[in-house]
Design goal:
Blueprint (H helix, E strand, L loop, with lengths): L2 H9 L4 E3 L2 E3 L4 H7 L1 H11 L3 H4 L12 H6 L4 H15 L3 E3 L6 E3 L2 E3 L3 H12 L15 H22 L9 H11 L13 H25 L18
Antiparallel strand pairs: 1-2, 3-4, 4-5
């Protein structure tokens, strides 16, 4: 399925239908009800690959989904957690068939391979954006201070994604509050109705606008244009 199609549907807060199954994007309210840590754990579980679980095994001759190998090893506990995670994102009970050779979803039998496609849809609906610092050589103290201000804002978002347990990291509560205070038309009364894709999209758009303004100020105060990647905020969110 086209990833851009999934993104557009999710940005509009519309479900994606695949093989008769409706995958609805989760709202912040639903994520908070579950617990943000639990949400991330379930997202990581549905993203597992064979190589993540069976490190060092050559799968080149065995093109089977992860659950097939779990069934043929001592992976029963992981299977339960794995299917439960999919159940959360689908809003439907998922179980093994009586013969354990397929899946039962909404009382319909599906092949194991459907989990790979569902995982791609779910991961797209709940995407994260990684950040990389640009090389920068400040020409004076004022430009250096402007750059440090910009990097501090970038690092706040990175810490949310890479260091959830850090005492200095921003919590989801912090990010919701930031967007509610700065977002165009988004406030504390409607922000929780956003799905996670919408929330990330709007937060990153706000960040791009902020970085663009800081970079413009850096250039105006003598920064070397060769060392600043000036990206206008009217462009694709990376």
């Amino acid at each position: 399925m086209d990833k851009e199609y999934i993104k557009l549907k999710t940005l509009a807060n519309q479900p994606v239908v695949y093989e008769g199954l409706t995958i609805r994007p989760k709202t912040l309210n639903e994520i908070i009800d579950l617990g943000y840590d639990q949400f991330n754990q379930k997202l990581r579980l549905i993203s597992l690959n064979k190589e993540d679980v069976f490190a060092g095994v050559d799968f080149s001759e065995y093109n089977y989904p992860l659950i097939f190998f779990l069934l043929h090893t001592d992976g029963s506990d992981l299977i339960v957690e794995y299917l439960t995670s999919f159940s959360f994102f689908l809003g439907e009970e998922i179980s093994l068939s009586s013969a354990q050779d397929s899946l039962m979803i909404t009382e319909i039998k599906f092949p194991f391979e459907i989990l790979d496609q569902l995982a791609e849809i779910i991961k797209t609906q709940n995407c994260y954006v990684s950040e990389n610092d640009d090389d920068f050589n400040p020409l004076n103290d004022r430009v250096r201070a402007l750059r440090e201000k910009m990097l501090a804002r970038k690092n706040k978002l990175r810490k949310l994604k890479q260091d959830q347990d850090s005492e200095n990291g921003l919590s989801l509560q912090d990010l919701i509050s930031i967007l509610s205070s700065n977002g165009n038309g988004i406030n504390i009364f409607n922000v929780f109705d956003l799905n996670f894709f919408q929330f990330n999209d709007q937060f990153n758009r706000m960040r791009m606008i902020d970085e663009y303004e800081v970079n413009i100020q850096a250039l105006l105060h003598g920064a070397d244009s060769k060392n600043i990647k000036l990206t206008h905020w009217i462009s694709g969110v990376k």
